[in-house]
Amino acid sequence: MNKDRTRPQARRDQRRPGAPTPRAATAGRTATPGGAPGRTPAATATATVPAQRRPPHHRRPTPHEQFAERLLAVLSGRRPVHWMLGHTIGEAYEQLVQLAPRTPLRTRGALPVVRTCGGFHPRPGVVEAFASIAAGEQVRAMAFRLEQGRDLRWRCAAVELGGAPSAAAGAPA
Q: Hey, is 30 helix, strand or coil?
């Protein structure tokens, strides 16, 4: 017994709390019917060792995946157009200014989400990308072009939408 009452008693187990047990220490051990650890053949020992779960691996989204989410936020009305000011070059901002007031990706029911997103690299520093936008039963297409500047930042250079209902587009049929 520890006579110094100001310090807690030292731990006997040198492993950290919550750390996985070493396979060498647990291989071949099982509990006997009386509750005491016993030895079993190696064939049955592997079935008694619980599998360790690994946390899910989260990969960093690609630039075109990030821009698909940003464009969706603007074109669905969740963000204002000027939110994309530093992320666009050339005609892209003007295209967004014309498209955004109509909020072509806004829906009354379910929130629109990026269902799929892909890209093609025609040359270094350029990505031609597409995204499939789903909201309930409705699916729309979005295409955009990204260009990498000298500062290595990606900027949107063009935006196009497809699958627009003819009544919402306001164009003659």
A: strand
* Integer Cα distance of 68 and 154 in angstroms: 12
Using an 8 Å Cβ cutoff, are 28 and 34 in contact? no
pLDDT one-digit tens code per residue, 64-99: 999 999 999 999 999 999 999 999 998 999 999 999
How many Cβ atoms sit within 10 Å of the Cβ of residue 64? 23
* Spatial contact of 141 and 148, defined as CB atoms under 8 Å apart: no
Q: How many CA atoms lie within 13 A of 44 on its CB side?
A: 7
Return the H-helix or E-strand segment holding 134.
strand 126-135
Question: CA 5 to CA 117: how far, in whole Å?
Answer: 63
Determine which of 4-18, 85-99, 111-125 has the lowest per-residue pLDDT on average. 4-18
Q: Which of 117, 118, 163 is nearest to 137 (CA)?
A: 163
Amino acid making up residue 121: H
114 in Cβ contact with 68 (< 8 Å): yes
Enter the tokens of residue 167.
């009544």
